[in-house]
Design a protein that fits this description.
By secondary structure, the chain is of the alpha+beta class. It has one domain (about 5-80): Pemi-like Protein 1, Chain: D, CATH 2.10.260.10. The protein is about 45% helix and about 20% strand. It has a two-stranded antiparallel ribbon with strand order 1-2.
Length: about 80
């Protein structure tokens, strides 16, 4: 990806070039995740951050399927024991 100049506008808003918004699939009002690392600002779509988290956590799931389904089954089993 090429480098372009952005701008901080009134109210501390960051103006992101249209090409970057298009590549990232961002529209007005979309949520983003921002992080400062080594004195640099990293901005990414929240959808991208969630996909990364889901991918990282997938290895902890005991079997293919939804971790939520597994948690619900555990809660139901606990309720039957009580």
């Amino acid at each position: 990806m090429n480098v372009q100049r952005g701008k901080i506008v009134s109210g501390g808003r960051l103006l992101v070039p249209a090409e970057f918004r298009r590549v990232l699939g961002l529209s007005d009002g979309d949520a983003v995740v921002m992080e400062v690392s080594d004195n640099e600002l990293h901005v990414r779509p929240i959808k991208s951050a969630l996909r990364r988290i889901q991918h990282d956590l997938r290895r902890y799931a005991s079997a293919p399927g939804s971790v939520a389904d597994e948690l619900i089954a555990d809660r139901r089993a606990e309720a039957k024991r009580d």
